[in-house]
Amino acid sequence: MQSSLQAMFIRVKRKKTTYFLHCDPSETVLEIKQKLQSLSDNHVDDQRLVLVATQQVLEDHKTLADQKVENDAVVALTLKIPETGQWEDVSIEKPADYQSLLDSESC
Amino acid sequence: MRKEDTVKLISAEGFEFIIDRKAALVSNTLKNMLTSSGSFTETELGEVRFPEISTPILEKVCQYFYWSLQFASGKETEFHIEPEITLELMMAANYLHT
């Protein structure tokens, strides 16, 4: 049990937040959403997960392995907009001043 | 997984990383903060701010925690570090006793 828990991890990102989740390649996307529901209070049905590398929307009843979600993969979380029932766009913020920070420190 | 089993690390720019408590304990500094009896407010909130650690470095540190747990359970893979972040990452690692 212990070793299967450490089998892999994924990074689920939305805006300024990143969830690191332990998972197993045989887990379904629905199971991942259930974990996210307990952490973020967003209901399973209000979550959509997109594999960032391929922009592919992940399907609930397929496993991570089926959909080529690998160790350390980055997955975007988008939520259902309550008023319209539409999905929000993928939005992952990055710190804007990272490059300038690197430049200033290299002097 | 329950919320209580996770820890939120906050970077200099206010980005949040929610990681498994077990992963956070890889760092001795975090371990002391999270397990000491009541002397840190972090213990109760499960939330630690790092005003000195930038977002990409903190993310790399979290990736390291998870890699480290995998390595300890026998999955020996390489941990890739981009040369341009090496110095900053080492300073963060020194601070975190990782």
List the helices and strands and how they pair.
The complex is a heterodimer of chains A (107) and B (98).
Chain A: H1 2-5, E1 8-14, E2 17-23, H2 29-40, E3 47-51, E4 56-57, E5 73-79, H3 98-106
Parallel strand pairs in A: 1-5
Antiparallel strand pairs in A: 1-2, 3-4, 3-5
Chain B: E1 6-10, E2 16-20, H1 21-24, H2 28-35, H3 41-45, E3 47-49, H4 55-72, H5 86-96
Parallel strand pairs in B: 1-3
Antiparallel strand pairs in B: 1-2
Helix pairs in contact in B: 4-5
Helix content of chain B: 40-55%
User: Can you tell me the residue ranges of chain A where pLDDT is under 50 for at least 5 consecutive residues?
Assistant: none
Q: Which sequence of SSEs, written as H and E, runs from N to C of chain B? A: EEHHHEHH
Strand content of chain B: 5-15%
CATH homologous superfamily caption of chain B:
Potassium Channel Kv1.1, Chain A
Main beta sheet of chain A: strand number and arrangement?
5 strands, mixed
- Number of distinct beta strands of chain A: 5
Name of the CATH first level of chain B:
Alpha Beta
Q: What is the overall pLDDT average of chain B? A: 89
Q: How does the overall form of chain B come out from the CA principal axes?
A: globular
CATH topology of chain B: Potassium Channel Kv1.1, Chain A
Query: Would you tell me the overall average pLDDT of chain A?
Result: 88
Placed side by side, the strands forming the largest sheet of chain B appear as 2-1-3
Oligomer state equals: heterodimer
Q: pLDDT below 50 for ≥5 consecutive residues: which ranges of chain B? A: none
Cα-to-Cα separation, first versus last residue of chain B: 25 Å
Major beta sheet summary of chain B: 3 strands, mixed
Structural class of chain A: alpha+beta
Strand residues, percent of chain A: 25-35%
Q: Can you name the CATH architecture of chain B? A: 2-Layer Sandwich
